[in-house]
Amino acid sequence: MQTEDVVAGGRRERKKRETRLALAAAALRLAIEKGPDNVTVEEISEAADVSVRTFFNYFPHKEHAILGRDPEDLERSLTRLREAPAEQSPLTMLRVLVSQALADFEDKAGDAKQRFELIGRSPALLAQFVLLGAEDERALSAALAERMGEPATSLRPALLVGAVTTAVRVAAEKQKLAGGHEVPGLTVLVDEAFALLADGLDPAYDRTILTRDQEGQS
Amino acid sequence: MQTEDVVAGGRRERKKRETRLALAAAALRLAIEKGPDNVTVEEISEAADVSVRTFFNYFPHKEHAILGRDPEDLERSLTRLREAPAEQSPLTMLRVLVSQALADFEDKAGDAKQRFELIGRSPALLAQFVLLGAEDERALSAALAERMGEPATSLRPALLVGAVTTAVRVAAEKQKLAGGHEVPGLTVLVDEAFALLADGLDPAYDRTILTRDQEGQS
DNA sequence: AAATAGTTTGCACGGACTGCAAGTTCGAGT
DNA sequence: ACTCGAACTTGCAGTCCGTGCAAACTATTT
Protein backbone atom coordinates (compact mmCIF):
# COMPACT_ATOMS: atom_id res chain seq x y z
CA MET A 1 0.00 0.00 0.00
CA GLN A 2 2.88 2.42 -0.43
CA THR A 3 3.70 2.37 -4.14
CA GLU A 4 2.51 5.12 -6.46
CA ASP A 5 -1.12 5.19 -5.55
CA VAL A 6 -2.17 7.05 -8.66
CA VAL A 7 -3.71 3.76 -9.55
CA ALA A 8 -3.50 1.90 -6.27
CA GLY A 9 -1.86 -1.46 -5.73
CA GLY A 10 1.27 -3.18 -6.92
CA ARG A 11 2.21 -4.74 -10.19
CA ARG A 12 -0.34 -7.45 -9.63
CA GLU A 13 -3.34 -5.19 -9.54
CA ARG A 14 -2.06 -3.13 -12.40
CA LYS A 15 -1.70 -6.12 -14.63
CA LYS A 16 -5.15 -7.30 -13.79
CA ARG A 17 -6.62 -4.00 -14.75
CA GLU A 18 -4.68 -4.04 -17.96
CA THR A 19 -5.77 -7.51 -18.87
CA ARG A 20 -9.39 -6.77 -18.20
CA LEU A 21 -9.17 -3.64 -20.29
CA ALA A 22 -7.37 -5.39 -23.10
CA LEU A 23 -10.01 -8.09 -23.17
CA ALA A 24 -12.90 -5.66 -23.19
CA ALA A 25 -11.26 -3.58 -25.90
CA ALA A 26 -10.50 -6.58 -28.07
CA ALA A 27 -14.02 -7.86 -27.57
CA LEU A 28 -15.53 -4.58 -28.64
CA ARG A 29 -13.28 -4.15 -31.62
CA LEU A 30 -13.88 -7.64 -32.92
CA ALA A 31 -17.60 -7.43 -32.30
CA ILE A 32 -17.77 -4.32 -34.43
CA GLU A 33 -15.61 -5.79 -37.16
CA LYS A 34 -17.24 -9.18 -37.47
CA GLY A 35 -20.66 -8.73 -35.94
CA PRO A 36 -21.29 -9.51 -32.29
CA ASP A 37 -22.45 -13.05 -32.93
CA ASN A 38 -19.55 -14.07 -35.09
CA VAL A 39 -16.85 -13.44 -32.55
CA THR A 40 -15.47 -16.35 -30.61
CA VAL A 41 -13.98 -16.21 -27.18
CA GLU A 42 -10.89 -17.73 -28.66
CA GLU A 43 -10.37 -14.78 -30.98
CA ILE A 44 -10.87 -12.31 -28.19
CA SER A 45 -8.43 -14.05 -25.89
CA GLU A 46 -5.93 -14.35 -28.67
CA ALA A 47 -6.18 -10.67 -29.43
CA ALA A 48 -5.61 -9.83 -25.78
CA ASP A 49 -2.84 -12.40 -25.64
CA VAL A 50 -4.15 -14.57 -22.84
CA SER A 51 -5.50 -18.08 -22.76
CA VAL A 52 -9.16 -18.80 -23.28
CA ARG A 53 -9.33 -20.09 -19.77
CA THR A 54 -8.12 -16.77 -18.48
CA PHE A 55 -10.83 -14.97 -20.37
CA PHE A 56 -13.34 -16.75 -18.20
CA ASN A 57 -11.51 -15.69 -15.09
CA TYR A 58 -12.43 -12.14 -15.98
CA PHE A 59 -15.87 -12.36 -17.53
CA PRO A 60 -18.70 -14.80 -17.03
CA HIS A 61 -19.67 -14.71 -20.70
CA LYS A 62 -18.59 -13.33 -23.99
CA GLU A 63 -21.38 -10.77 -23.75
CA HIS A 64 -20.05 -9.21 -20.57
CA ALA A 65 -16.75 -8.54 -22.20
CA ILE A 66 -18.37 -6.86 -25.17
CA LEU A 67 -20.64 -4.77 -22.98
CA GLY A 68 -17.66 -3.97 -20.79
CA ARG A 69 -19.76 -2.24 -18.22
CA ASP A 70 -18.10 0.00 -15.72
CA PRO A 71 -19.43 -0.67 -12.21
CA GLU A 72 -18.45 2.89 -11.36
CA ASP A 73 -21.34 4.19 -13.42
CA LEU A 74 -23.95 2.75 -11.13
CA GLU A 75 -22.01 3.83 -8.05
CA ARG A 76 -21.87 7.35 -9.34
CA SER A 77 -25.59 7.49 -9.95
CA LEU A 78 -26.33 6.07 -6.53
CA THR A 79 -24.13 8.64 -4.88
CA ARG A 80 -25.69 11.44 -6.83
CA LEU A 81 -29.09 10.24 -5.84
CA ARG A 82 -28.18 10.12 -2.17
CA GLU A 83 -26.70 13.57 -2.30
CA ALA A 84 -29.50 15.21 -4.23
CA PRO A 85 -30.91 18.42 -2.70
CA ALA A 86 -33.59 17.57 -0.19
CA GLU A 87 -36.09 19.95 -1.70
CA GLN A 88 -36.14 18.18 -5.07
CA SER A 89 -39.12 15.99 -5.77
CA PRO A 90 -38.43 12.38 -6.73
CA LEU A 91 -39.04 12.70 -10.44
CA THR A 92 -36.95 15.82 -10.54
CA MET A 93 -34.07 13.95 -8.97
CA LEU A 94 -34.40 11.25 -11.54
CA ARG A 95 -34.53 13.75 -14.36
CA VAL A 96 -31.28 15.28 -13.20
CA LEU A 97 -29.79 11.83 -12.82
CA VAL A 98 -30.70 10.86 -16.35
CA SER A 99 -29.38 14.11 -17.62
CA GLN A 100 -26.05 13.54 -15.96
CA ALA A 101 -25.89 9.94 -17.04
CA LEU A 102 -26.50 10.94 -20.64
CA ALA A 103 -23.81 13.55 -20.37
CA ASP A 104 -21.38 10.97 -18.99
CA PHE A 105 -22.36 8.77 -21.86
CA GLU A 106 -21.54 11.45 -24.40
CA ASP A 107 -18.16 11.96 -22.83
CA LYS A 108 -17.01 8.40 -23.19
CA ALA A 109 -15.51 8.85 -26.60
CA GLY A 110 -16.89 6.51 -29.19
CA ASP A 111 -16.77 3.36 -27.13
CA ALA A 112 -20.01 3.69 -25.27
CA LYS A 113 -21.93 4.66 -28.35
CA GLN A 114 -20.53 1.83 -30.41
CA ARG A 115 -21.46 -0.62 -27.71
CA PHE A 116 -24.91 0.78 -27.76
CA GLU A 117 -25.12 0.27 -31.48
CA LEU A 118 -24.14 -3.34 -31.12
CA ILE A 119 -26.81 -4.09 -28.60
CA GLY A 120 -29.43 -3.50 -31.23
CA ARG A 121 -27.89 -6.11 -33.43
CA SER A 122 -27.59 -9.11 -31.17
CA PRO A 123 -30.35 -10.62 -29.10
CA ALA A 124 -27.81 -12.30 -26.86
CA LEU A 125 -26.22 -8.97 -26.13
CA LEU A 126 -29.56 -7.33 -25.58
CA ALA A 127 -30.56 -10.03 -23.15
CA GLN A 128 -27.46 -9.54 -21.02
CA PHE A 129 -27.86 -5.81 -21.18
CA VAL A 130 -31.40 -6.00 -19.91
CA LEU A 131 -30.39 -8.31 -17.12
CA LEU A 132 -27.70 -5.93 -15.96
CA GLY A 133 -30.14 -3.06 -16.23
CA ALA A 134 -32.60 -4.86 -13.99
CA GLU A 135 -30.01 -5.10 -11.24
CA ASP A 136 -29.33 -1.42 -11.51
CA GLU A 137 -32.98 -0.71 -11.34
CA ARG A 138 -33.30 -2.58 -8.08
CA ALA A 139 -30.41 -0.69 -6.55
CA LEU A 140 -31.79 2.64 -7.67
CA SER A 141 -35.27 1.83 -6.38
CA ALA A 142 -33.89 0.98 -3.01
CA ALA A 143 -31.87 4.19 -2.88
CA LEU A 144 -34.82 6.28 -3.99
CA ALA A 145 -37.14 4.66 -1.47
CA GLU A 146 -34.73 5.55 1.27
CA ARG A 147 -34.32 9.04 -0.10
CA MET A 148 -38.10 9.47 -0.05
CA GLY A 149 -38.38 8.05 3.41
CA GLU A 150 -40.62 5.23 2.25
CA PRO A 151 -40.35 1.55 3.13
CA ALA A 152 -38.50 -0.66 0.69
CA THR A 153 -41.71 -2.46 -0.14
CA SER A 154 -43.42 0.68 -1.29
CA LEU A 155 -44.67 0.75 -4.82
CA ARG A 156 -44.05 4.33 -5.79
CA PRO A 157 -40.26 4.50 -5.79
CA ALA A 158 -39.99 1.27 -7.76
CA LEU A 159 -42.59 2.43 -10.21
CA LEU A 160 -40.84 5.76 -10.59
CA VAL A 161 -37.52 4.18 -11.40
CA GLY A 162 -39.14 1.62 -13.66
CA ALA A 163 -41.16 4.19 -15.54
CA VAL A 164 -38.17 6.45 -15.99
CA THR A 165 -36.07 3.61 -17.29
CA THR A 166 -38.84 2.78 -19.69
CA ALA A 167 -39.10 6.40 -20.73
CA VAL A 168 -35.45 6.57 -21.64
CA ARG A 169 -35.61 3.28 -23.46
CA VAL A 170 -38.66 4.26 -25.45
CA ALA A 171 -37.17 7.62 -26.31
CA ALA A 172 -33.99 5.94 -27.49
CA GLU A 173 -35.95 3.51 -29.62
CA LYS A 174 -38.00 6.21 -31.28
CA GLN A 175 -34.87 8.20 -31.86
CA LYS A 176 -33.13 5.30 -33.55
CA LEU A 177 -36.16 4.23 -35.49
CA ALA A 178 -36.52 7.57 -37.18
CA GLY A 179 -32.98 7.11 -38.45
CA GLY A 180 -31.53 10.57 -38.80
CA HIS A 181 -34.67 11.96 -40.38
CA GLU A 182 -34.79 15.30 -38.63
CA VAL A 183 -35.58 13.63 -35.33
CA PRO A 184 -36.27 15.77 -32.31
CA GLY A 185 -33.09 14.74 -30.50
CA LEU A 186 -32.90 12.41 -27.57
CA THR A 187 -32.94 15.11 -24.94
CA VAL A 188 -36.13 16.57 -26.28
CA LEU A 189 -37.82 13.20 -26.40
CA VAL A 190 -36.76 12.41 -22.87
CA ASP A 191 -38.12 15.74 -21.70
CA GLU A 192 -41.39 14.99 -23.36
CA ALA A 193 -41.57 11.58 -21.73
CA PHE A 194 -40.82 13.01 -18.30
CA ALA A 195 -43.50 15.62 -18.73
CA LEU A 196 -46.02 12.92 -19.56
CA LEU A 197 -45.02 10.89 -16.54
CA ALA A 198 -45.19 13.91 -14.28
CA ASP A 199 -48.59 15.13 -15.43
CA GLY A 200 -50.11 11.73 -15.84
CA LEU A 201 -50.15 9.62 -18.90
CA ASP A 202 -53.87 9.80 -19.28
CA PRO A 203 -56.10 12.46 -17.75
CA ALA A 204 -59.22 10.63 -18.96
CA TYR A 205 -58.44 7.37 -17.20
CA ASP A 206 -61.67 5.79 -16.02
CA ARG A 207 -61.36 4.40 -12.54
CA THR A 208 -64.79 2.83 -12.46
CA ILE A 209 -63.73 0.18 -14.91
CA LEU A 210 -61.86 -1.75 -12.27
CA THR A 211 -64.61 -2.91 -10.02
CA ARG A 212 -66.39 -4.69 -12.85
CA ASP A 213 -64.70 -8.01 -13.34
CA GLN A 214 -62.89 -8.63 -10.09
CA GLU A 215 -63.94 -10.37 -6.96
CA GLY A 216 -62.22 -11.34 -3.73
CA GLN A 217 -58.53 -11.64 -4.55
CA SER A 218 -57.00 -11.81 -1.10
CA MET B 1 -59.33 -30.39 -45.19
CA GLN B 2 -62.21 -32.82 -44.68
CA THR B 3 -61.29 -34.83 -41.60
CA GLU B 4 -62.71 -33.88 -38.24
CA ASP B 5 -61.85 -30.23 -38.25
CA VAL B 6 -62.14 -29.92 -34.51
CA VAL B 7 -58.42 -29.56 -34.72
CA ALA B 8 -57.86 -28.92 -38.43
CA GLY B 9 -55.51 -30.82 -40.67
CA GLY B 10 -54.59 -34.44 -41.17
CA ARG B 11 -52.58 -36.84 -39.12
CA ARG B 12 -49.42 -34.90 -39.94
CA GLU B 13 -50.54 -31.66 -38.36
CA ARG B 14 -52.02 -33.45 -35.43
CA LYS B 15 -48.80 -35.26 -34.68
CA LYS B 16 -46.86 -32.04 -34.90
CA ARG B 17 -49.11 -30.39 -32.40
CA GLU B 18 -48.83 -33.37 -30.13
CA THR B 19 -45.07 -33.43 -30.32
CA ARG B 20 -44.80 -29.73 -29.60
CA LEU B 21 -47.10 -30.08 -26.67
CA ALA B 22 -45.33 -33.14 -25.33
CA LEU B 23 -42.00 -31.34 -25.52
CA ALA B 24 -43.28 -28.23 -23.77
CA ALA B 25 -44.94 -30.31 -21.09
CA ALA B 26 -41.87 -32.43 -20.50
CA ALA B 27 -39.70 -29.33 -20.41
CA LEU B 28 -41.89 -27.70 -17.82
CA ARG B 29 -42.19 -30.77 -15.67
CA LEU B 30 -38.48 -31.45 -15.66
CA ALA B 31 -37.64 -27.81 -15.06
CA ILE B 32 -39.80 -27.84 -11.97
CA GLU B 33 -38.42 -31.12 -10.72
CA LYS B 34 -34.74 -30.48 -11.24
CA GLY B 35 -34.47 -26.72 -11.44
CA PRO B 36 -34.54 -24.92 -14.79
CA ASP B 37 -30.79 -24.86 -15.20
CA ASN B 38 -30.22 -28.50 -14.49
CA VAL B 39 -32.37 -29.83 -17.28
CA THR B 40 -30.72 -30.94 -20.47
CA VAL B 41 -32.26 -30.96 -23.88
CA GLU B 42 -31.48 -34.63 -24.01
CA GLU B 43 -33.67 -35.35 -21.02
CA ILE B 44 -36.53 -33.34 -22.43
CA SER B 45 -36.37 -35.03 -25.80
CA GLU B 46 -36.14 -38.41 -24.17
CA ALA B 47 -39.20 -37.72 -22.05
CA ALA B 48 -41.14 -36.69 -25.14
CA ASP B 49 -39.72 -39.65 -26.99
CA VAL B 50 -38.11 -37.84 -29.87
CA SER B 51 -34.52 -37.31 -30.85
CA VAL B 52 -32.52 -34.34 -29.64
CA ARG B 53 -32.26 -33.13 -33.17
CA THR B 54 -36.02 -33.05 -33.43
CA PHE B 55 -36.28 -30.95 -30.33
CA PHE B 56 -34.43 -28.23 -32.18
CA ASN B 57 -36.85 -28.50 -35.07
CA TYR B 58 -39.52 -27.28 -32.70
CA PHE B 59 -37.80 -24.80 -30.42
CA PRO B 60 -34.83 -22.56 -30.97
CA HIS B 61 -33.60 -23.00 -27.39
CA LYS B 62 -34.28 -24.95 -24.32
CA GLU B 63 -35.78 -21.84 -22.78
CA HIS B 64 -38.48 -21.52 -25.39
CA ALA B 65 -39.70 -24.99 -24.64
CA ILE B 66 -39.88 -24.30 -20.93
CA LEU B 67 -41.64 -20.99 -21.42
CA GLY B 68 -43.93 -22.69 -23.94
CA ARG B 69 -45.58 -19.46 -24.89
CA ASP B 70 -48.85 -19.53 -26.69
CA PRO B 71 -48.85 -17.10 -29.63
CA GLU B 72 -52.61 -16.94 -29.26
CA ASP B 73 -52.23 -14.88 -26.12
CA LEU B 74 -50.76 -11.92 -27.92
CA GLU B 75 -53.24 -12.25 -30.75
CA ARG B 76 -56.09 -12.18 -28.30
CA SER B 77 -54.82 -9.04 -26.63
CA LEU B 78 -54.31 -7.32 -29.95
CA THR B 79 -57.82 -8.14 -31.05
CA ARG B 80 -59.26 -6.94 -27.80
CA LEU B 81 -57.36 -3.72 -28.13
CA ARG B 82 -58.60 -3.14 -31.64
CA GLU B 83 -62.16 -3.82 -30.62
CA ALA B 84 -62.17 -1.73 -27.48
CA PRO B 85 -65.02 0.77 -27.16
CA ALA B 86 -64.14 3.98 -28.92
CA GLU B 87 -64.99 6.13 -25.94
CA GLN B 88 -62.41 4.52 -23.66
CA SER B 89 -59.28 6.50 -23.04
CA PRO B 90 -55.96 4.78 -23.80
CA LEU B 91 -54.98 3.94 -20.25
CA THR B 92 -58.45 2.66 -19.55
CA MET B 93 -58.17 0.29 -22.50
CA LEU B 94 -54.89 -0.96 -21.20
CA ARG B 95 -56.29 -1.43 -17.73
CA VAL B 96 -59.04 -3.59 -19.11
CA LEU B 97 -56.54 -5.47 -21.20
CA VAL B 98 -54.34 -6.21 -18.23
CA SER B 99 -57.34 -7.24 -16.24
CA GLN B 100 -58.39 -9.72 -18.89
CA ALA B 101 -54.89 -10.99 -19.38
CA LEU B 102 -54.54 -11.63 -15.66
CA ALA B 103 -57.87 -13.44 -15.69
CA ASP B 104 -56.73 -15.61 -18.60
CA PHE B 105 -53.61 -16.27 -16.66
CA GLU B 106 -55.54 -17.48 -13.65
CA ASP B 107 -57.57 -19.81 -15.82
CA LYS B 108 -54.65 -21.69 -17.25
CA ALA B 109 -54.59 -24.29 -14.54
CA GLY B 110 -51.27 -24.49 -12.76
CA ASP B 111 -49.05 -24.42 -15.81
CA ALA B 112 -48.84 -20.71 -16.36
CA LYS B 113 -48.21 -19.98 -12.72
CA GLN B 114 -45.54 -22.59 -12.40
CA ARG B 115 -43.79 -21.22 -15.44
CA PHE B 116 -43.91 -17.83 -13.86
CA GLU B 117 -42.34 -19.17 -10.72
CA LEU B 118 -39.51 -20.66 -12.69
CA ILE B 119 -38.68 -17.43 -14.43
CA GLY B 120 -37.62 -15.96 -11.15
CA ARG B 121 -35.13 -18.73 -10.63
CA SER B 122 -33.16 -18.75 -13.84
CA PRO B 123 -31.47 -15.78 -15.44
CA ALA B 124 -31.45 -17.56 -18.79
CA LEU B 125 -35.17 -18.03 -18.61
CA LEU B 126 -35.72 -14.48 -17.52
CA ALA B 127 -33.66 -13.19 -20.39
CA GLN B 128 -35.70 -15.06 -22.98
CA PHE B 129 -38.89 -14.02 -21.31
CA VAL B 130 -37.95 -10.38 -21.45
CA LEU B 131 -36.99 -10.68 -25.08
CA LEU B 132 -40.32 -12.19 -25.97
CA GLY B 133 -42.04 -9.52 -23.91
CA ALA B 134 -40.27 -6.80 -25.85
CA GLU B 135 -41.70 -8.10 -29.10
CA ASP B 136 -45.16 -8.08 -27.65
CA GLU B 137 -44.64 -4.58 -26.46
CA ARG B 138 -43.81 -3.40 -29.92
CA ALA B 139 -46.89 -5.02 -31.38
CA LEU B 140 -49.10 -3.55 -28.69
CA SER B 141 -47.63 -0.08 -29.12
CA ALA B 142 -48.31 -0.17 -32.81
CA ALA B 143 -51.87 -1.29 -32.25
CA LEU B 144 -52.46 1.33 -29.60
CA ALA B 145 -50.98 4.07 -31.76
CA GLU B 146 -53.38 3.16 -34.51
CA ARG B 147 -56.26 2.98 -32.08
CA MET B 148 -55.38 6.46 -30.86
CA GLY B 149 -55.02 7.77 -34.36
CA GLU B 150 -51.43 8.78 -33.78
CA PRO B 151 -48.47 8.15 -36.07
CA ALA B 152 -46.40 5.08 -35.32
CA THR B 153 -43.48 7.28 -34.38
CA SER B 154 -45.40 9.00 -31.65
CA LEU B 155 -44.01 8.77 -28.17
CA ARG B 156 -47.16 8.55 -26.13
CA PRO B 157 -48.56 5.18 -27.15
CA ALA B 158 -45.19 3.52 -26.76
CA LEU B 159 -44.67 5.15 -23.41
CA LEU B 160 -48.11 4.09 -22.28
CA VAL B 161 -47.54 0.48 -23.16
CA GLY B 162 -44.05 0.54 -21.70
CA ALA B 163 -45.16 2.14 -18.47
CA VAL B 164 -48.03 -0.26 -18.07
CA THR B 165 -45.79 -3.24 -18.66
CA THR B 166 -43.44 -1.84 -16.07
CA ALA B 167 -46.31 -1.27 -13.68
CA VAL B 168 -47.40 -4.87 -13.88
CA ARG B 169 -43.86 -6.09 -13.52
CA VAL B 170 -43.16 -3.92 -10.51
CA ALA B 171 -46.41 -4.92 -8.89
CA ALA B 172 -45.61 -8.58 -9.43
CA GLU B 173 -42.15 -8.13 -7.96
CA LYS B 174 -43.42 -6.38 -4.86
CA GLN B 175 -46.06 -9.02 -4.48
CA LYS B 176 -43.58 -11.84 -4.64
CA LEU B 177 -41.02 -10.09 -2.49
CA ALA B 178 -43.41 -9.73 0.39
CA GLY B 179 -43.79 -13.51 0.28
CA GLY B 180 -47.25 -14.27 1.60
CA HIS B 181 -46.99 -11.73 4.42
CA GLU B 182 -50.45 -10.30 4.21
CA VAL B 183 -49.69 -8.67 0.90
CA PRO B 184 -52.26 -6.42 -0.73
CA GLY B 185 -52.90 -8.79 -3.64
CA LEU B 186 -51.74 -8.29 -7.16
CA THR B 187 -54.93 -6.71 -8.41
CA VAL B 188 -54.82 -4.06 -5.76
CA LEU B 189 -51.18 -3.27 -6.47
CA VAL B 190 -51.85 -3.01 -10.17
CA ASP B 191 -54.73 -0.65 -9.49
CA GLU B 192 -52.50 1.49 -7.38
CA ALA B 193 -49.87 1.59 -10.09
CA PHE B 194 -52.39 2.55 -12.74
CA ALA B 195 -53.73 5.31 -10.57
CA LEU B 196 -50.25 6.71 -10.16
CA LEU B 197 -49.63 6.58 -13.87
CA ALA B 198 -52.94 8.22 -14.62
CA ASP B 199 -52.58 11.07 -12.16
CA GLY B 200 -48.93 11.64 -12.68
CA LEU B 201 -46.12 10.04 -10.82
CA ASP B 202 -44.95 13.27 -9.33
CA PRO B 203 -47.04 16.39 -9.00
CA ALA B 204 -44.04 18.35 -7.75
CA TYR B 205 -41.88 17.69 -10.79
CA ASP B 206 -39.77 20.74 -11.50
CA ARG B 207 -39.65 21.53 -15.18
CA THR B 208 -37.14 24.33 -14.86
CA ILE B 209 -34.38 21.93 -14.03
CA LEU B 210 -34.05 20.88 -17.65
CA THR B 211 -32.83 24.02 -19.28
CA ARG B 212 -29.79 24.17 -17.08
CA ASP B 213 -27.23 21.78 -18.54
CA GLN B 214 -28.36 21.33 -22.10
CA GLU B 215 -27.58 23.18 -25.23
CA GLY B 216 -28.33 22.74 -28.94
CA GLN B 217 -29.03 19.07 -29.51
CA SER B 218 -30.30 18.99 -33.11
C1' DA C 1 15.67 -17.31 0.15
C1' DA C 2 11.77 -19.45 1.38
C1' DA C 3 7.05 -19.59 2.38
C1' DT C 4 2.61 -17.89 0.84
C1' DA C 5 -1.03 -16.34 -1.67
C1' DG C 6 -2.93 -14.94 -6.10
C1' DT C 7 -2.92 -15.85 -11.27
C1' DT C 8 -2.50 -18.24 -15.50
C1' DT C 9 -2.83 -22.06 -18.16
C1' DG C 10 -3.84 -26.76 -20.26
C1' DC C 11 -6.79 -30.54 -20.15
C1' DA C 12 -10.84 -32.91 -20.07
C1' DC C 13 -15.44 -32.67 -19.94
C1' DG C 14 -20.59 -31.80 -20.66
C1' DG C 15 -23.91 -29.38 -22.91
C1' DA C 16 -26.07 -26.27 -26.57
C1' DC C 17 -26.93 -25.75 -31.17
C1' DT C 18 -26.25 -26.27 -36.61
C1' DG C 19 -25.71 -28.23 -41.34
C1' DC C 20 -25.96 -32.14 -43.95
C1' DA C 21 -27.39 -36.43 -45.78
C1' DA C 22 -29.81 -40.29 -45.23
C1' DG C 23 -34.07 -42.50 -43.78
C1' DT C 24 -39.30 -42.57 -42.76
C1' DT C 25 -43.95 -41.28 -42.98
C1' DC C 26 -47.76 -38.95 -44.92
C1' DG C 27 -50.81 -37.24 -48.50
C1' DA C 28 -52.29 -36.84 -53.30
C1' DG C 29 -53.04 -38.20 -57.82
C1' DT C 30 -53.99 -41.69 -60.83
C1' DA D 1 -53.78 -49.95 -54.45
C1' DC D 2 -49.44 -47.96 -56.20
C1' DT D 3 -46.33 -44.47 -56.77
C1' DC D 4 -44.22 -40.13 -56.25
C1' DG D 5 -43.00 -36.00 -53.93
C1' DA D 6 -43.12 -33.26 -49.94
C1' DA D 7 -42.73 -32.98 -45.05
C1' DC D 8 -40.72 -34.76 -40.91
C1' DT D 9 -37.31 -37.33 -38.18
C1' DT D 10 -32.99 -38.87 -37.14
C1' DG D 11 -27.89 -39.68 -36.61
C1' DC D 12 -23.50 -37.83 -37.29
C1' DA D 13 -19.94 -34.68 -37.26
C1' DG D 14 -18.57 -30.52 -35.91
C1' DT D 15 -18.17 -25.71 -33.51
C1' DC D 16 -18.47 -23.12 -29.63
C1' DC D 17 -19.48 -21.98 -24.80
C1' DG D 18 -18.46 -22.44 -20.11
C1' DT D 19 -16.57 -25.11 -15.77
C1' DG D 20 -13.72 -27.94 -12.48
C1' DC D 21 -9.32 -29.37 -11.54
C1' DA D 22 -4.48 -29.56 -10.87
C1' DA D 23 -0.04 -28.05 -12.25
C1' DA D 24 2.95 -24.23 -13.30
C1' DC D 25 4.12 -19.63 -12.61
C1' DT D 26 4.65 -14.95 -10.32
C1' DA D 27 4.17 -11.36 -7.08
C1' DT D 28 4.34 -10.32 -2.12
C1' DT D 29 5.72 -11.03 2.57
C1' DT D 30 8.82 -12.21 6.11
Helical content class of chain A: 55-70%
What distance lies between the first and last C-alpha atoms of chain A, to the nearest angstrom? 58 Å
Q: Can you tell me the overall shape of chain A?
A: globular
What low-confidence regions of chain A span 5 or more consecutive residues with pLDDT below 50? Answer: 1-5, 213-218
Strand content of chain A: under 5%
Order of helices and strands of chain A: HHHHHHHHHH
Largest sheet of chain A: none
Q: How many β-strand runs of chain A? A: 0
What's the helix count of chain A?
10
Most extensive chain interface and residues per partner: A-B, 64 and 62 residues
Report the radius of gyration of chain A as a whole number of Å. Answer: 21 Å
The residue-averaged pLDDT of chain A reads 89
Oligomeric state of this protein: homodimer
Q: What class do helices, strands and sheet pairing of chain A give? A: mainly alpha
Describe the protein's architecture and organization:
The structure is a homodimer of 218-residue chains. Chain A is an all-alpha fold and 218 residues long. Helix content of chain A is 67%, strand content 0%. The longest helix of chain A is centred in the middle third of the chain and has 26 residues, at 123-148. The radius of gyration of chain A is 21 Å and the shape is globular. The first copy, chain A, starts with 10 loop residues before the first helix and ends in a 19-residue tail after the last helix. Residues 1-5 and 213-218 of chain A have low confidence and may be disordered. Chain A binds a DNA duplex (30 and 30 nucleotides) through residues 10-12, 15-16, 40-42, 50-54, 56-57, 60-62.
